[in-house]
Amino acid sequence: MTEFSHRVEQVSISGIRKVFEAAGEDAINLGIGQPDFPTPEHACQGAIDAIENGRTDAYTSNKGTHSLREAIATKYDREYGLEIDPEDAIATSGGSEALHLVLEAHVDPGQEVIFPDPGFVSYDALTRIADGTPKPVSLREDLTLDPAAVEAAITDETAVFVVNSPANPTGAVQSEADMREFARIADEYDVLCLSDEVYEHIVFEGDHRSPLEFSRTDNVVVVSACSKTYSMTGWRLGWVVGSTRRIERMLRVHQYAQACASAPAQYAAEAALTGPQEPVDEMVAAFERRRDVVLDGLEDAGLEVPTPQGAFYVMPKVPEGWCEEVLDRDVIVVPGDAFGANGEGYARISYATGIAELKGALEIIDDATAAVK
Ligand SMILES: Cc1ncc(COP(=O)(O)O)c(C=O)c1O
To answer: Ligand 1: distance of its center to the CA of 53 in Å?
Structure first.
């Protein structure tokens, strides 16, 4: 008789969904994991032109159109001074598929995958789906990932360690010194560093740096996407870049599971990457203003919260019963333990919502906090 595989039996549906389902219809949603801005017009036009010119009715190359991969290579040159061969990139169905490809191609049964806890929900689940063993590591007090903690967690069984900066759910940004350390660890221990950079452009001070800039081996692969930078989560377009031999292995999975990323989305992504970047700057400036409003509100409510430097999340420490009290008052926040055991006692607040709604929610949060303190 057919049973379910032990891999899927170990994975449960994300705790984030459960919160959404439990909330009332008029709730203010601070649980959102996507920008609330429109996709830039020139990106949409890229897809429209491709559709009108009949360029979307066929599979593209498995790796994606050459012109998109050139746009991706140009982006890494422009932003990081990195020379990437367009052949060493695969366009994927969002950053999510790219994470899956990296783990499927590099993890053998029982091998360990180290990732931040609290961290993005997919790292644990995709590790289990790849038949690997999740190895969550706790964060520093400021919610960044300590390279020393990663180094201490490495064993002979470690296949991959994940770095995510700017991070979901914390908004924390790793320093350049940390990124250099992650590259050193990948090189020295001969372990793959998976750098999840989907929030790379949503940084408020300084620039995001990638371990790919500092590694002297091919032990760093980078995953990114149009999803957050260009407010294109619905388009489902991301990518992975890495060395030729790693891309070739990942392509074996992608080719059979996906064939190619959606063609209209690829043309939109190419237009997004090669067109004007002002919409990104405007969105990031708006996120920074909102972050400050949220930080002020949370501090006024008496909550302790490290200042996040990126993404669009803050993660305050909260007293017991706080999330329930806030949810009861129809403000959706995500309990920190949805992101790993060490998230217990925290909550993730997303500010991908207009300032007026944020201010309304912060008043409710103030009352709710007073009620549980
Ligand atoms: C840290 C992180 N990585 C990857 C993803 C997946 O992004 P995509 O929508 O491109 O699949 C997300 C989405 O929330 C994320 O927060």
So the answer is: 31
